[in-house]
Amino acid sequence: LRPTTRHRPAAGTHAGAMDFAELERKEGVRLSWNAWPSSRIEATRVVLPFGAICTPVKAMDGMPVLPYSPVVCTECSGVLNPYCHVDFHQKRWQCCLCNTGNSLPRNYHEINENNLPAELFPGYTTVEYQMENKNPRPPCFLIVLDTAMSAEELQDAKDSLGQLVALLPEECLVGLITFGATVTVHELCDGNAFPKSYVLRGTDDVTQDQLKKLLNLELSPSEYASYDKQRGSAVAEASNALRRFVLPVSECEFTFQTALDELRPDPFPREPGMRPLRATGVAIAAAQGLIAECHSAQGARVMVFTSGPCTMGPGSIVGRDMSETMRTHQDFNKGSAKHYKAASKFYNQLGIRLATHAHTLDVFACSLDQVGLAEMKTAVDQTGGVMVLAEQFGAEAFRSSLRRVFARDASGALDMYFNATFSVFCTPHVMVCGGIGPMSALAVKSKSISENEVGMGQTTSWRICSLNSNTSVAVYYEIVNQHSNPIPSGTPFYLQFCVRYKRSNGEIRLRVMTVARRWAETSSSHDVVSGFDQEAAALLVARVSTFRIEHEETFDLLRWLDRTLIRVGTKFGEYAKDAPETFRMPGPFAIYPQFMFNLRRSQFLQTANNTPDETAFYRLMMGRETVLNSLIMIQPTLMSYTFNGPPMPVLLDVASIQPDCILLLDTFFMIVVHAGSTIAAWRKANYQDQPEHEAFRNLLAQPVADAATAMGGRCPTPRLVECDQGGSQARFLLAKLNPSATHNTSDAALPSYDRAMGGGGGYDGAGGGAEIIFTD
User: Fold this and answer.
1) Which of 21, 110, 414, 772 has the fewest CB atoms below 10 angstroms from its CB?
2) CA 471 to centroid of chain Cα atoms
3) Among 564, 573, 559, which residue's Cα sits nearest to residue 541?
4) For the purposes of burial, counting CB atoms within 10 Å of the CB of 556, is it exposed (0-12), middle (13-18) or buried (19 or more)?
5) What are residue 250's phi and psi, to 5 degrees?
6) Which of 225, 350, 379, 344 is nearest to 291 (CA)?
7) At residue 92, what are phi and psi to the nearest 5 degrees?
8) Which helix (H) or strand (E) holds 436?
9) CA distance 734 to 750
């Protein structure tokens, strides 16, 4: 279904169809429009946003790593790239972004047409610079563990944490905080025969300054008076948090494991009909203060493992009395969620404190009940953190998700990058409206900032506290060139994306991605239409939709989506007036209406049958995943496996369910293997165990193997559901299908009400075993 191309013309010309996936592989960027109208008026007529989906640290084959610092424009801070004009005689270069002339540094004076530095090679539009790091330090992982759970659950959690520490490189720093009714900060130093633990009250917030006093991390006035900042002192060294609470794995692994082994469930009594005392908010605040004191502006993660909601102190989302139910989406709509605003404000402030020090908040929630992810979502999102939802700590899905968080890249280092600064640069005719992704805005002023804010605007730079090779950021642009100042069609323009980040081994890199595209005369020109990337556009619209529905209380999202789609169809559709049957969208737009149809009924916009925590998790994942993964979330893939040939994609429609086929549904968060009624009957008869039915055995195995392959590269690990037609778990498939056949539209009468209800509508009769969906 993707447009294809045989050749990529220079500087982003668009003769013929384009292979956008190939462009992304080379550049790390996908644009919704790959040819832009040259005036503001024409730009408004294309309806859909001008934007880019950038994967800042995408693994790219053949990308050079340059062992020196970049050459930067003195006017716009853009970086020298192959599209810049270089005068080898005058030793000057002209920035392609702002057209400012700059002098080349001394070490570039020997370059010429036959002796170019790597960043000027025509094929190296994306390069990385290896920056100097005078103070390399390993990343820090501060474990915050909930103990208000049963002994069995706590043991599973301790086993998982033991697995986590085993996955870490030995030089990484670790620390441990536990919480229940109180918050306990554990010393991990080997010097003491009996390491101390500091117990904090679970009812009051704690700041960094307060924590320094409580943990005896600050010097007395007399000690401070004699303190030499150059030489240090034995007293200061002994009180340093890096010598007591946060230590390298190689030095404290035994002490850490001993502290885990000695943990017991929270001893505070739990009365019948009452929830346990759980001070999650204070525990996160204490972790933030400790990590800010000992590891500021370095890579660090606060990893919270919790089994229930916060019930005391700041950040509480529900009272202790179980007669008080957990908040729902209906409570949000009515304004009756009495804890929500205060808890959200508290966690948002914690997120700001974490992001200020470039630290990340991760939440691993293992509970059958909600734990407060809806309130924590902003803090996790703006620090680039991870959310994992599971039913229990011992579940394989949870443990595999934990392993994938700490996966290694091709070089053997953690596929985890810290303290990144993401900046964008553009030509004078374009302005930056904002960005949407797992980041927080920096107060960077520029001439390229648009007044029309989309997402996190009023800046051209953002901080990403933590990211991996799949993290993607959406950037939105506005064309501001006036219609009275025409730009010749075919003139190139340039966009640049720079990300400065720290690797887990302490090395600092700067990746520079420069893309070139061309101006078009009007919004209806062939280059504009053929250069439309419907997949990138669908993701840009989806991110704007989820952002606005969370931040604008009176926003009628579905009406906005419908009117936008109607305007797109009016502008680009081909039809005869008063003849609806003649309407069709041109090739580059053919699937875009399907994306919008599935987006409207997706879990990102429809909250029915989902808790606020689940909705927060889904929206958080939508805001950071790549184009391909996000499209699977919006429009799940459905594959059919039969004896008649290889697996084939089929429509997301109830008509695709047939008794003699196996369906594989991939929604990104869940993978469903659905066996038709005939296939299920044969399997229950154990035909697959008979030698003469090897083909049937292979048919059963292939979708399961394909599901395992799809699950292998995702974090969090998707849930795998294997079900039969008519079974109770077949509802996970039916919920995603278009109900083209219902109890009202089916031509054949149902044999009986009981059989229809028991079999989900599937029956062997006039309908040939096809499925129907009961609707209201």
Assistant:
1) 110
2) 6
3) 564
4) exposed
5) -65, -25
6) 350
7) -130, 160
8) strand 430-436
9) 18
Query: Is residue 677 within 8 Å of residue 762, measured between CB atoms?
Result: yes
Assess contact for 724 and 677: CB atoms under 8 A. yes
Question: pLDDT, tens digit, for every residue of 421-478?
Answer: 999 999 999 999 999 999 999 999 999 999 999 999 999 999 999 999 999 999 999 9
Residue 772 is predicted with a pLDDT of 81
Three-state DSSP state, 247: strand
Round to whole Å and give the CA distance between 282 and 315: 8
Determine the 3-state secondary structure of 307 from DSSP.
Answer: coil
Nearest to 416 by CA among 40, 733, 164, 678: 164
**Range of lowest pLDDT (1-10, 174-183, 188-197):** 1-10
> pLDDT digits over 575-592, tens only?
998 898 999 999 999 999
Q: Which residues contact 160 (CB under 8 A, 6 or more apart)?
A: 305, 393, 394, 398, 399, 402
SS3 per residue for 486-517: CCCCCCEEEEEEEEEEECCCCCEEEEEEEEEE
Paired tokens of 592: 């875009």
User: Is the bond preceding residue 716 a cis peptide, omega within 30 degrees?
Assistant: yes
Return the H-helix or E-strand segment holding 700: helix 694-712
User: What one-character DSSP code corresponds to residue 113?
Assistant: T
- Tell me if 421 sits within 8 A of 660, measured CB to CB: no
For the chain, how long is the longest CA-to-CA vector?
Answer: 94
307 exposed, middle or buried (CB, 10 Å; 0-12, 13-18, 19+)? buried
Phi, psi of 392 (to 5 degrees): -155, 155
| Whether 94 contacts 101, CB under 8 Å | yes
270, 271, 295, 332 from 321: Cα distances, Å: 11, 10, 39, 20
Give kind and range of the element (H or E) at residue 376: helix 373-382
Give the Cα separation of 4 and 281 in Å (integer).
51
CB atoms under 10 Å from CB of 499, counted, come to 26
Report whether 125 contacts 515 (CB < 8 A).
yes
User: What's residue 769's pLDDT?
Assistant: 53
User: Would strands 126-131 and 65-66 be described as parallel, antiparallel, or unpaired?
Assistant: parallel
Q: What are phi and psi of 587, to 5 degrees?
A: -50, -50
Beta carbons within 10 angstroms of residue 584's beta carbon: 12
Query: Any idea what the Cα angle at residue 762 is, between residues 756 and 766, rounded to 5°?
Result: 100
How does the average pLDDT of the chain come out, rounded?
90
The residues with which 673 forms a beta bridge, in sequence order, are: 664, 722
Cα–Cα separations (whole angstroms), residue 506 to 300, 426, 727: 12, 30, 52
